[in-house]
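Hey all, quick one. A colleague (J.T.) asked me to put the calcium ion job into the tracker so the inputs and the structure tokens live in one place instead of scattered across chat threads. No bug as far as I know, just bookkeeping. Sequence used:
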Amino acid sequence: MQTKIPDWLKNAVFYEIYPQSYYDSNRDGIGDIPGIIQKLGYIESLGVNAIWLNPCFESPFQDAGYDVSDYTKVAPRYGTNEDLIQLFLEAKQRGIRILLDLVPGHTSIDHPWFKQSQKAHPNPYSDWYVWNDSVWNATDADLPSVRGFAERNASYITNFFYIQPALNYGFAHPDPYQPWQQSVDAPGPKAVRQEIKNVMRFWLDKGASGFRVDMAASLVKRDPGHQETARFWTEIRAWLDESYPEAVLISEWGTPTEAIPAGFHIDMLLNYSNPGVISLFRKRGYGNHRDHYSWSFFDESGHGNIKQFVDEYQHYYNATKDLGYMAFITGNHDDHPRIADGRSENLMKLVYLFILSMPGTPIIYYGDEIGMHYTEGLPSKEGGYARTGVRTPMQWSTSENAGFSTADPSKLYLPVPNEIEGITVEQQETKQDSLFNTVRELIKLKQAYPALEADADFQIVYAEEGKLPFIFSRSKQNQSLLIAINPSNQEANCNIPKQSNWLNRKFIYGQDNAINEDGEKWLIKLKPVSGTVYQVV
Ligand code: GLC
Ligand code: CA
């Protein structure tokens, strides 16, 4: 398959906005689209040039909007369709693209399609969801179902919570003894596929630049290796290449070797499901996986092991580098705790040096640019459960409600954390070496050097089992950059065989004098918790 990758992705840095918590423009305590429009100047000043907006469509909000009841209508609490179109326009004027969140795998039980589908009397929507043939028959454990909810005598398969019935994309291998399992080209699945395409067209025609696709691998049931699900995305991609060649699809899949050949421009590396990525960021003793992980690489103890990451990454990279990009994320609305938890500001600067200089298209979760923290112990909000603590209001300033809203504090979507001193936009904008200003500087660097573009060549220079530092190079058009990272609170040294091109090196960022001659070798010497970037050609 010959696909096109839009040029704009080469310099793309994404910003994920959870709309309910970004900025409240009308004092109801909930963030909204006009609020995002008001903050576009800030977003532009950060340097990101694309936004992924979490679902902003009509919904009963039993899973924070991932339970859609109308795909083509903005939820009134966020504004109107006109507001969203205005956001597309004003963002575009600032060189920022907006990607919406597409939830193709399931709807809310409140969606009119489902309300029809659950009726006893057969109708055009009867086969739009996955129903078995009797409430008395259980489905298999890998196809969780809800029994006794519908008028019709059948149980429906859910994709996530019970309020999220799975849309019917068919079964890759229907069980002949279970005739309710339809094939992928049965009329129901065909109609669903067409309708999801219509939803995409609806928003693309209004100015959206693409979609982050929720649970993108989940569509076709009994689909080992996700081959039939992939076939659907390949068709969608071919249609986009033809009709919307600038539009981009980002998958929540976490297996780039499946998602990117399937047609996604970008697959996210998930800090909680890709083992190699977990070994970079998942802090031991934090969050709901408390004791499951060994030390992360980005830990000042220096106990992490970069090889765990490198082996996984190299495999993904080699298999996908000519087809699309991987996205490192700082976090997201599901990933908890936040990436700054348990990390010093200096260590966070190294995390950003890494994320913003590796290949692909990084995604920064709102608030991570100022090092916001997770709030422990919040009661679950809108199906958030443990995720609720990463969804608190953006911390704009130290004034009332952290500058998020002028509503009464009791009305806020979620409370502002108690300790926000120093972790606000207002305070960090004026502090030259703040995390915020470092992130800005690193984004500028990424966008200034062709060698840091998404598709620039990537080579490992030094990554040894349990040793530090980690060194890699990025190269493009006769430009080559060397990046070295030492997360530990001890100095880190290593020797590299001499390469003549390093003789005319130019210091770019971080710690100077990190490369020294040592007889026949180079000696790389990094201070505790530091990193460096050199141009070597
Ligand atoms: C994805 C979303 C998550 C949601 C789930 C069900 O994992 O990121 O927030 O709850 O899908 O749609
Ligand atoms: Ca509001």
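Adding what we noticed when we looked at it: The chain has three domains: 7-104+189-448, 106-166, 457-535. The mean pLDDT is 96.
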